[in-house]
Amino acid sequence: MNNLALVVGASGIIGSNLSRELVANGWTTYGLARNPSTSIPNLHPVAANLLDPASLQAALADINPTHVFITTWMRQDTEAENIRVNSTLVRNLLDALAPKHSVQHVALVTGLKHYLGPFDAYATGGLLPPTPLREELPRLDLENFYYAQEDEVYAAATRDGFSWSIHRPHTIIGKAVGNLMNMGTTLAVYASICKETGRPFQWPGSEAQWSGLSDVTDARIIAKQLVWAATTEGARNQAFNIVNGDFFRWSWLWGRLADWFGVEAAGFDGTVHPLEEQMAQDGPLWREMATRYQLAEPELNRLASAWHTDLDLGRPIEVMTDMGKSRELGFTAYQSTQASFFDLFEQLRTDRLIP
């Protein structure tokens, strides 16, 4: 039987890169989103609302996927609402597919909040785990929508007999517009504003993040791991961390990012300078810049997710991730983190999303 993929969240950072990876590997690939992209060659767009079972039933009526990749979530005001909404979208999707009996594997993308806690209690107090973070660490004694989504996958796998994999990236670096968690593009927009105004490219986060070791996940590397896990016998029914494979310190990388844009780097000065505050009044400026430089997206909040970048860069501990589990099973892909940022910046400039 030919592999037929359903990428859920195909318009996002991970979903779009995964769709390209699957198509490049010869998979028949459907991309589901509320407003699916038509820009990826050979990706079949599917428009559906994951919170509307009737919408899903209609959209998937003639699609019988062998592999399902869930790469999306919906942000709510509280963790209780995050749990309700994001578990529902997974349950609705898998319930809609169950009668088809076609699904062989389901992959779910979550992230390091599995170890660090939900938005309401992120990386605080006595909840801080030992690093490097390993998949064997137990769940925290906190409500967490990642756990709720996992439990929906486990329940459906028991009911329907498919295998599963869970993927936990750390800070996705890649291109997307309208994404809720987008550090690379946020920093690119911030640096562009600094260049326009003459402001220093001020480190926004904590001393622990500035000085400690860190890692990130290129959207292209998680795409490769998702395909690998879906097609590797030994990777079935496993959870995997996924990062580029190198470590760095922001105190080393920050100046290199500044140099790419030709701006002055300012490091940790004893005070946290949240980007959400630094960029709070920059919406009108960005619209002026969009007109001046003929940029494709004039709305700052469609490109920059300062709130989430502040969460990541403000953590009180260094955060890096162990990749030994998937390495031992044969996943050997590697990506330079500096190249992840520079490749993204080049793409954003080519696509006229930054000057």
UniProtKB/TrEMBL annotation:
Q: Which residues form a coiled coil?
A: none
> Taxonomically, which superkingdom?
Bacteria
Q: Which SUPFAM superfamilies match?
A: NAD(P)-binding Rossmann-fold domains (SSF51735)
All copies of the PRISE-like Rossmann-fold domain together span: 56-355
> What is the protein's given name?
Nucleoside-diphosphate-sugar epimerase
Report the source organism.
Hymenobacter mucosus
